[in-house]
Amino acid sequence: MADDVTSMLEKMKLTSEEEDVIEIPEEGRKEGIESCALSLIGKFLTCQPFNRKAAITMLKRAWGLEEGVQMIEVGTNLFQLKFQTEFAMDRVLKGGPWSFDNQVLLLTRWKAGMTADNVRFDSVALWVQIWATSFDLVLPKIVETVGSRLGSVVEVEKKQKFEGQSYFMRVMVVIPIAKPNRRGAFLAGSDGKSHWVTFKYERLPLFCQFWGLLGHDLKHCAPYFAATKNDGEVICQYGDWLKATGG
């Protein structure tokens, strides 16, 4: 949208009045910054309609902040979350991912100059479980190295987890939403061989089993339907096995 505005301005012949820059009084500027300083900007990553009022109510209840946060719709599927304390704001930002009806809420800190047209959401923080790592590689430093190949590492759990008959490690990673969820990776082992480890994602929101991308499902995937129409049955490369059952 910001690019559209720039392109439009380049084609317009502005009048002298339109070219004037309106100066904002310092008092008004300061008041505006103060009103937004404890704000997050949020957007639900979804292709489906949803009940905005119910979503806001549910999230406030999940945060324990029925009265401690003001959630204002500032654009189509775009919300400004105004908090009373920085502690509450940080807790919500770092405690995610948050979702409503399996549709994840993308969050970013407010910055001066943000508008509904130029705010960008390009990632989401998820806990990733790393399974089938050889015993000598189950170390926090190695988990951090693996996590860094997925995105920006937020936190590494220091202790290994146990589920069923297997161990796994956990790392929280800020993952780019423009890329498919990685299903695993080859790790170079101490024996000189490469070993495959599997990734599972905790609280994995709506995703496409055809592309592996977040934000839509097979019901809303035109390329998937085109592929089935041309080739008959299509075997999806992604599935619910990417979802972690524990953490």
TrEMBL record:
It comes from the Eukaryota. InterPro entries: At4g02000-like, DUF4283, Zn_knuckle_CX2CX4HX4C. Residues 192-221 form the Zinc knuckle CX2CX4HX4C domain. Residues 34-114 form the DUF4283 domain. This is DUF4283 domain-containing protein. It comes from Lithocarpus litseifolius. The lineage of its organism: Eukaryota, Viridiplantae, Streptophyta, Embryophyta, Tracheophyta.
